[in-house]
Amino acid sequence: MTDDENRATLFFYPPVDDADSWHMTFEGLEEALKERFPGALIQTLPTPFREGNFLSFEVLVAEGVGVRGTATIPIEECGCITLKLVTPGEAAPFAQWLRDDFIPSPDLIRFSSEGAMEIGDETHWELPRSGEQAGIEEDLRAHIAYVESI
Description:
Mean pLDDT: 92
Number of strands: 7
Structural class: alpha+beta
Number of helices: 4
Helix content: 25-40%
Radius of gyration: 14 Å
Low-confidence stretches: none
Largest sheet: 7 strands, antiparallel
């Protein structure tokens, strides 16, 4: 979290009991990002903590609105996508694309935040299974408010 109550580092990941349900690969994610977000800046980098790699990306989700993130695959086909220090409004278009176009089913996306992890909250929030960006933004905002109220 930052001092700005509307910004958070958000994590999007599959259900814990179905960790490989996304069938995510770096190659597949990179291709999908480039298709949906022309001009995306993407690179695969070595992880500093353990053997392996992560995908770093920057995309424009709206005119003049960019988000930075990373993707990790801790076990085969099990992805975690992180958006760094975003507002709910910045994260919502990306989350909608993730739900509607990239992940094989809308009920396979959970989310949390760095702030929740810092306070030990292990609640797995779910994106709305349908609807527009406004509903996603509302849920992300509610999550941030919940974490800040603890």
